[in-house]
Write a sequence for this structure.
């Protein structure tokens, strides 16, 4: 965008940080099996073997249907693919009643994070809304809007593959830090690593080599990088890394801003 925008319109973007992201259901949907049905997190498996056996049978078909959706992005095809993967790979975990944002903790409070209730109350205060210059006609703050989610779903937004956008950033010289808490289920590290271990960009060969053969240890977990792309695992953190591991998150953030290695 900056290449076609005037100087006044340009955004001086230098880098992006994406925590526990969703980029491609083709690569990430099947990871809903790995987290609860293996010991990849160090505290699994979490579900009964009979449940996992049934889920395992569906992994290949889920991946096949997701590929069909992206090859032929018709809402009917994509909704069928999403429906199958959701029913066979997501629902068993939801039915277990376990925390989908942090597999090590019970699901308590709004969005499984009790602090969300306090955050919601704070952001709904008149003085806070005024400080943020929120339009008086705007609705009250909600942490996760079902209405917004339904509107996105109507236009298939939830299934759009955003990997090309990340690749474009990297090719434009924008640095990207991808960090993932290892105890998250909904946007987990297994799926994220499948995404970035196959991301179509010029730095893929070296990044994949680093991912497979040269992981570095830091106080928060593991990390590796190639050129403008850095990936960091944060051990023991769930979906909200800065809340779960504030010391490690701050260290990671400062190292990124200062363009230093993690240690």
């Amino acid at each position: 965008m900056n290449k076609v925008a005037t100087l006044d319109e340009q955004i001086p973007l230098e880098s992006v940080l994406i925590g526990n992201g969703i980029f491609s259901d083709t690569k990430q949907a099947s990871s809903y099996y790995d987290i609860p049905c293996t010991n990849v997190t160090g505290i699994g498996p979490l579900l009964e073997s009979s449940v996992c056996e049934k889920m395992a049978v569906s992994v290949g078909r889920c991946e096949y249907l997701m590929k069909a959706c992206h090859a032929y992005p018709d809402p009917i095809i994509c909704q069928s693919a999403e429906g199958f993967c959701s029913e066979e790979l997501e629902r068993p975990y939801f039915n277990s009643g376990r925390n989908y944002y942090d597999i090590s903790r019970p699901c308590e409070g709004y969005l499984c994070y009790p602090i969300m209730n306090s955050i919601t109350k704070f952001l709904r205060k008149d003085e806070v809304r005024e400080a943020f210059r929120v339009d008086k006609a705007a609705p009250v703050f909600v942490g996760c809007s079902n209405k917004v989610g339904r509107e996105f779903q109507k236009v298939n937004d939830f299934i759009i593959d955003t990997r090309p956008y990340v690749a474009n950033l990297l090719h434009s010289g924008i640095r990207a830090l991808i960090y993932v808490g290892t105890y998250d289920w909904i946007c987990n590290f297994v799926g994220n690593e499948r995404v970035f271990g196959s991301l179509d960009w010029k730095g893929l060969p070296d990044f994949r080599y680093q991912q497979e053969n040269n992981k570095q240890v830091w106080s928060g977990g593991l990390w590796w990088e190639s050129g403008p792309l850095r990936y960091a695992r944060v051990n023991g953190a769930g979906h909200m890394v800065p809340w779960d591991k504030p010391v490690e998150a701050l260290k990671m953030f400062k190292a990124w801003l200062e363009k230093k290695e993690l240690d």
The chain is about 45% helix and 10% strand. The first strand starts at residue 15 and ends at 19. Residues 52 and 103 are 16 Å apart (CA to CA). The radius of gyration is 20 Å.
